[in-house]
Write a structure and sequence with these properties.
By secondary structure, the protein is α/β, with parallel strands linked by helices. The chain contains 21 helices and 8 strands.
Length: 459
């Protein structure tokens, strides 16, 4: 269990700030999609952390209930991502435990079903009574429905319970393994584990289920039975190129379960296993997948070096491009007009194409535009460049004036919702890379996107 330190408190405050930024973004997007979040929900959600921290139980309960009535997602996020953290801190665990006990006494059936798994896990912390612990594991098993429990986070709390030192020490292996296997069975009922739902819906739920499955299979491998199949599944369900687009969906799961939010997943563990067992082709494929998901200089170098050792006939550049095309979707068959010429995706480009989707209303977008302008200028000056750069503006105000005042010269086209949806753009800025063969991928937010482009294109 994490200790109570200044560092922990700072991390919590940073998490709060991050969550507030996410909510702000939701508001911006909701204004575009006509989804309405009640204004009253914001002061309520912003006050909860302080109420819990200060032990103002009655006020916290009333605020929680009202927030659930106004906008359930805010209440769910607060309880499972902020309140749950309080049980890791000796300074706040007592206030949080009292809050949960009193909230349950209100007998709000909908709220109680959401908080019950968290409540049961909290009862295992610092509990050394084997009978009580076994009963709690039985209760957790019963609150697990026959499908994944995304809103109540039941699978998360089952896994956290299995991690408690007293549970590991006092509960028999068979009981623990049965609960773990039930968690796995539940998560595997999610229908979009392999292929995302069409239209880009449910990506966060998919990423959440996949991360917990990866963790569960790794636990099964490391604590119960070291079958290669389990480690392979832990690797396969680790964040893929789609999950990386919605990192926040499993950020807290990684924090709670492993304490590591930087190196997330088990692909490296499986890679080391494959190398140790001299499985050459499988190692190459996994190295390529790791480099594709995170094309850092180190990952690409590791792939290049391993490929060179194998002395294959196909040049690395050809192999890498073929692998990327296999992982990407077909670009929409569109023709977008610009002031000078057009971007014609009705046919294969024959070169790499980078598209930045932004809007004048989007502060993160506007902040990045000077960097984009510099990138565009340098690329245009390179006569040997294999990359062409375009930008799409969505729902901008006074776009022409904005471009002139800021002296931006990169190509921009104001797109409509049809084009926006064709590329499945749901957040801004979105960065899209199209291969010479007409396949496309999205570059995750908050990464070194110039490095990603350089290493995807081998510039």
């Amino acid at each position: 269990m994490l200790t109570s330190t200044v560092t922990t408190d700072i991390k919590k405050l940073n998490s709060m700030k991050k969550t507030c930024l996410i909510w702000l973004f939701i508001v911006i997007v909701s204004s575009l999609t006509n989804a309405q979040i009640p204004k009253e929900a914001f002061p309520l959600t912003n006050s909860l952390y302080s109420l819990w921290h200060e032990g103002k139980t009655e006020q916290a309960i009333e605020t929680t209930i009202k927030l659930y009535e106004l906008y359930p997602p805010f209440m769910i996020d607060n309880v499972h991502n902020l309140l749950a953290q309080n049980f890791r801190n000796k300074l706040t665990i007592l206030n949080s435990a009292v809050f949960l006990e009193e909230l349950r006494k209100r007998k709000n059936e909908a709220i109680n079903s959401l908080i019950e798994p968290l409540y049961l896990w909290s009862k295992t912390i610092d509990n050394s009574d084997p009978n009580q612990l076994k009963n709690i594991l039985s209760d957790l098993s019963h609150v697990l429905s026959d499908s994944s429990n995304y809103k109540s986070y039941a699978e998360r709390y089952c896994l956290l319970t299995l991690n408690e030192p007293a549970v590991q020490k006092l509960i028999d292996q068979k009981t623990k393994e049965q609960l773990l296997l039930k968690v796995i069975r539940n998560l595997e009922t999610y229908p979009h584990l392999i292929y995302p739902d069409k239209g880009g819906k449910g990506l966060s739920e998919r990423a959440w289920n996949r991360y917990l499955l990866a963790y569960s299979y790794y636990s099964l491998f490391s604590k119960f039975d070291q079958k290669e199949e389990y480690l392979m599944k832990a690797s396969n369900y680790s964040p893929d190129e789609v999950d990386i687009q919605v990192k926040d969906a499993y950020y807290y799961e990684a924090s709670f379960l492993t304490g590591n939010t930087k190196q997330i997943g088990y692909k490296i563990d499986y890679l080391n296993y494959l190398k140790t067992n001299h499985k050459v082709q499988e190692s190459l494929s996994l190295l390529a997948e790791i480099a594709f998901n995170t094309p850092s200089d180190d990952n690409l170098k590791a792939l290049k070096d391993y490929y060179a050792i194998l002395s294959l006939e196909k040049p690395f550049k050809e192999y890498w491009l073929q692998f990327i095309n296999q992982k990407c979707k077909n670009a929409p068959q569109l023709k977008i007009k610009f002031t000078e010429g057009a971007l014609d995706l009705m046919q294969k480009p024959g070169h790499w194409v980078y598209i930045d989707v932004w809007g004048t209303w989007c502060s993160p977008c506007v902040k990045e535009l000077p960097i984009l302008q510099e990138f565009f200028t340098k690329n245009r000056q390179d006569t040997n460049s294999i990359l062409k750069i375009y930008t799409f503006s969505y729902s901008s105000q006074n776009l022409s004036l904005f471009m002139t005042e800021n002296q931006y010269t990169f190509p921009v086209s104001e797109i409509d919702k049809q084009v926006n949806d064709a590329f499945e753009v749901t957040s801004y800025p979105t960065k899209i890379l199209i291969t010479p063969q007409g396949k496309y991928l999205k570059i995750p937010f908050n990464v070194d996107w110039k490095m990603y482009i350089r290493n995807y294109c081998l510039m």
